[in-house]
Model the fold of this input.
Amino acid sequence: MTVGEAIREAAARLSATSDTARLDAEVLMAHALGVARSEMLLRHQREPVPDGFASLVERRAAHEPVAYITGTQEFYGLELRVTPEVLIPRGDSEVLVETALGHAAAQAGRVLDCGTGSGALLLAVLAARPGWQGIGIDISPGALAVAADNAARIALADRAQMVLASWCDSGWSAGLGRFDLILANPPYVEDAADLDPCVREYEPAGALFAGPEGLDDYRILIPQLRGLLVPGGLALLEIGASQGESVGALARDAGFSVDLRRDLAGRPRVICLT
Done:
């Protein structure tokens, strides 16, 4: 069987469990070959199928996310390492990065990423703003190790510091200083939410779920942000599609002015606090 034939067969196999079966099959084949997907499509279609491809397809058929199988995920032009210790960066979160870059226009500044995970948000901003420095905090040592590795892989280790901390702990921010920009993609999924198996069964629950309304972490984090921002600073929080009014109300109660940004599908995605 050739590579092209195996991709067609794998796409048919995955169609029962994936809405992107053909793309999944192509990405897994490129990973098995050790080449870029574009190169695989152009130059390797008639070659024999590499060892291990079938096992990769079976893992995906069992709902394991492609990013965890390949160990990488592209986000805002960066290729990031991901493991089951971190959430897989989504394209929807790029709205937060775009908003942050619109604010982070100065020659130098400081950014804090609350719940940094893979480091995606922090590193995307720092990569686009060479004069800025940043700190990423996370409660998970495993996630911080992934974030630190990503910072080193894209030559940002000298500007991105990863710190073990939880905004639920008293005194967690002591010594961090103040920031021009704060980013946060906290847990915001309702405990009883009906999630795709590739999310519920594989991605870290501690980074997903936040109580019956998905608001527990916002209630804790938002009141603490004022003490971390410089005058004129901006805090950006990713939210669930139905949480614009509820998170906005929490922010206004904490003394913030609130603006809402939507993703490419028109869904509420980012709350801007000033």
Observations:
- The chain is about 35% helix and 20% strand.
- Residues 85-273 form a domain with the Rossmann fold fold (CATH 3.40.50.150).
- The first strand starts at residue 72 and ends at 75.
